[in-house]
Amino acid sequence: MPAKILHLDLDAFFCAVEELSSPGLREKPFAVGGRPDQRGVVASCSYAARRLGIHSAMPMSRALRLCPELVIVPGHHRAYGEASKQVMERLEAVTGLVEIISIDEAFLDVSDLPESGEIIARRLQTQVMNELKLPCSLGVASNKLVAKIANDVGKKAAKGNAPPCAITIVPPGQEAAFLAPLPTEILWGVGPKTAARLAELGIHTIGELARWPEADLAKRFGESGADLSRHAHGLDDRPVSSGHEMKSVSQETTFVRDVRDDQMLEKKVRELSAQVGRRLRKTGLAGTTVRIKLRWPDFNSLTRQVRLVSPTNSDEEIAKAALALLGKARAPGKSVRLIGVGVSGLGEPVRQLLLWDNGSEKARKLEATLDKLQERFGDKVIRRGRIPEPADEAGDGPKNVCGRRITSNLEGYPSATYQGRTIYFCTEFCLEAFRRDPDRFYLAHSRKRS
Amino acid sequence: MKAGRHPPMRIDTIIDERIEAMKVTVLQETLAHGLSIVSRAVSPRSTLPVLSNVLVATDEGRLRLSATNLELGITCWIGAKIEEEGSTTVPARTFVDLVGTLPAEQVSLNLNTTTQSLNVRAGASNTDIKCIDSQEFPPMPVPEMDSAFQINVADFKEIIQQVAFAASTDEARPVLMGVLMNVEGDKLTMAAADGFRLSVRHATLSTSAPQALSAIIPARALNELARITAEGGEMISMVLPKGRGQVVFRVKDAELVSQLIDGVFPDYQQIIPRAYKSRTILSTQSLLKACKQAEIFAREGSNVARFNIKSSGDLEPGSVEISAQSEETGSNETIVSATIDGVGLLIAFNVRFLREVLEVVRSPNVALETSAANSPGVIRPVGSDDFLHVIMPMHLG
After folding, report:
1. Residue A425 has what pLDDT?
2. In chain B, whose CA is at the least distance from the CA of A238?
3. Which residue in B has a C-alpha nearest to residue A357's C-alpha?
4. Which among A194, A274, B140, B273 would be 20 to 30 A from A394, CA to CA?
């Protein structure tokens, strides 16, 4: 009995929520996002705007060039969060097996329900529309990969200025045939680089990829080669996991002004590593893979990772690995817009002991002591000498962007560095808002203090 | 500078007096084998294009193939019918791939020196490869093999295999990427350590070395040497040319030159435990199998496997429970019967480290000496004291 997997995606979600409060926007080209003169980007845009070639993540200035009459709506992220919660609650009422991928996307495993996937999909679509006035599209297939691609394809096929409200079904057994004519880029794990390498082999469609010998793909692409081949055949056995099990711990920061100073970046990497290390130690975990994420001023991003001999949750070890990766990925003096440090491959904190101690045991004890002090007396009671204190509380404290205050410790919250200070935000949305117009919030806050 | 073993004068004469146009015939199989030996020293992504090439040169009635990445150089000599002397450097990848697909018959190599184009013919196949003048190839040292020291032990290949794997791959600590080689009188000792484990092997030379020597040789070079050394007692000569910081190994038809690693090798004697609290004797193969199984699950995470050494009184045989688990794939446990002298202990090891050492233990039984969960474990072959391996355990949470 094949599985029944649904992929649900809310249609132009942020825009749909905006239309609820401003019905005048309906069927007009508009975009939710930041101001073009503040490096704003399109977070979401209406279908009318999409017809004109505008898409999310596009710089707003470019979107305006494509469509000068584009209406720019500042985001109301609390409203989106609330609406998303309402949708997900309805999904969870259908089955316990709901994997929420993002604010507007989820997988459902409905294999155990008696009705067909299609009937469940139609019912959900109607329910979300009737009760929440939100359009959504669904893909139905025997696995996550095909359900998601089916939904993407179905949504793209829709024309006109109204939301697609598509339902696309791939019957069991038809997976490979459905995928065959599609371009390889649509598969998970096929980015522009892999696609280019495949194109060199004359592989442009998933069907061509499926016909290529798996052994050869494995030879060319390593472990992911076998996955490529399986996915191209429409095979995917990843379960829909509702578990909130932690897969990785990471911390990143977006600089309000791009940073090219090597020392400042090193300092930032050490800070981020210390935050990641502390979070790991707090949860009693350690990880074997350290990775960094970089975004350049042109918005291109890259991640680099390294597997360690033994799992770590030590600030020093994470920082050492992250700095080595940074050194390889970035030429000195190159400007950076965003930097992140993460640890994955999480498990019990076992530690490979050393034949001759190089000071790591001492460092570990120091970290444990610092953790205890910070836990008892708060973050600022003690810090490593290498990381200078933030200038004052104003710089360190959460910014009043959305009105929420962070009162507990700041770890795990998104942060930005502005005028040499690290500033924390309750959500990514607030960080984005701050980044678009830092002075507005920054000065407002400083005034309040003085 | 002309590479090769010819006296420079003779080569100059050849170049001056006529157009050199190398013309040789060689068996496909011989050429393919020679290329497989030297191509490991090719540096494919070098900024010097000639380092991606293999030097092909006629040399006293044979064909010489050489490749170098400036740290490691490998040369081998193969039988060939030489019609005209000459030399060039051929892009390694192109040449290796091409020769691999040629029919198993005579291959004729014909160099046009003006265009540096090598014509390769075999059967119906006719190829022209664009080459780089051999004058651009870095000179490979011609060692004075008179002062060579004969490593006259039958099992040098085995010695390398028992030691070199324990060397580090971390470029941050170059000394540990090497194998310490000490010779004093007729005693040869080789040792390598990566900070987590230490491998030491002793051997006796059949004749004493003329003088004591001590050098740190890159593990990579020794692994290549082991690869090109045939099984059994092939004679290996070794020279440390004075003041060059290099080592040269010569086997029957091949030569390997490597830069030595500069530095002080850690005092490994201090690391070897002098005593133990329990000595567990197990079948090498049974333990190796158990480790391989555990590794299937351990490798998903931190590579940790637990070894529960259970001593059960004087008269009854003991056992070791080896277990590993993975969040994703499952768990595995194997019980291996053992003779245990001493107390029981639960100790955790990186199971890859243990598997790697068990793969090079030749004796049917192996002893694991332990003292505490956070003290080093020692692996020794039972019935021979020429090899030992120290592994630091993993600390559990």
Report:
1. 67
2. B328
3. B195
4. A274
> Would the CB atoms of B395 and A356 count as touching at under 8 Å?
no
Q: What is the ipTM of this complex?
A: 0.82
pLDDT at position A440: 57
Same domain, residue pair A211 and A353:
no
CB contact under 8 A, B196 and A352: yes
Tens digit of pLDDT for each residue in A141-185?
Answer: 999 999 999 999 999 888 888 889 999 999 999 999 999 999 998
Among 3.10.150.10, 3.40.30.10, 3.40.190.10, 2.60.200.30, what is the CATH number of B149-268? Answer: 3.10.150.10
Q: Across all residues in chain A, what is the average pLDDT?
A: 83
Q: Cβ(A126)–Cβ(A118) under 8 Å? A: no
pLDDT above 90 for A371: no
CB proximity list for A196: less than 8 A, separation 6 or greater:
none
Nearest residue to B256 (alpha-carbon basis) of B143, B338, B180, B163: B143
Q: What is the DSSP letter of B176?
A: G
Query: Is the confidence at residue A260, as pLDDT, over 80?
Result: yes
Length of chain A equals 450
Decide if A348 and B266 are in contact by the 8 Å CB cutoff.
no
CB–CB contact A347 B193 (8 Å): no
At B350, list the tokens. Answer: 């990186």
In this structure, whether the domain defined by B11-136 belongs to CATH 3.10.150.10 is answered with yes
CA distance A362 to chain B (A): 15
Question: How would residue B305 be classed by pLDDT, with cut points 50, 70 and 90?
Answer: very high
Q: Is residue A243 part of a domain?
A: no
Spatial contact of A351 and A363, defined as CB atoms under 8 Å apart: no
Decide if A356 touches B, using CB distance below 8 A. yes
Residue B195: its chain A contacts at CB < 8 A?
354-356, 358
Q: How far apart are CA B249 and CA A32, in angstroms?
A: 70
Q: Of A95-109, A417-431, B59-73, B206-220, where does mean pLDDT reach its minimum?
A: A417-431
Identify the weakest region by mean pLDDT among A270-274, A339-343, A402-406, A423-427.
Answer: A402-406
> What is the number of structural domains in chain A?
4
Q: Measured between CB atoms, which of B302, B327, B394 is closest to A353?
A: B394
Give pLDDT, residue B3. Answer: 43
A350 and B348 within 8 Å at the Cβ level: the answer is yes
Q: Report the CATH architecture of B272-394.
A: Roll (3.10)
Which residue of chain B comes nearest to A349, CA vs CA? B397
- Residues of chain B in contact with residue A347, where contact means CB-CB under 8 angstroms, are 301-302, 327
Identify which of B24, B214, B247, B47 has the alpha carbon closest to the alpha carbon of residue B119: B24
- With contacts defined as CB-CB under 8 Å, which chain A residues touch B303? 310
Q: Residues 6 or more apart from A444 whose CB is under 8 A from it?
A: A400
Cα gap B193→B176, rounded to integer Å:
6
- Report residue B336: phi and psi, to 5°: -110, 125
User: Do B301 and A286 make contact, defined as CB atoms within 8 angstroms?
Assistant: no
Any catalytic annotation for residue A105? yes
Residue B139 has pLDDT above 70, yes or no: yes
Q: Which of residues 362-401 of A touch B (CB under 8 A)?
A: none
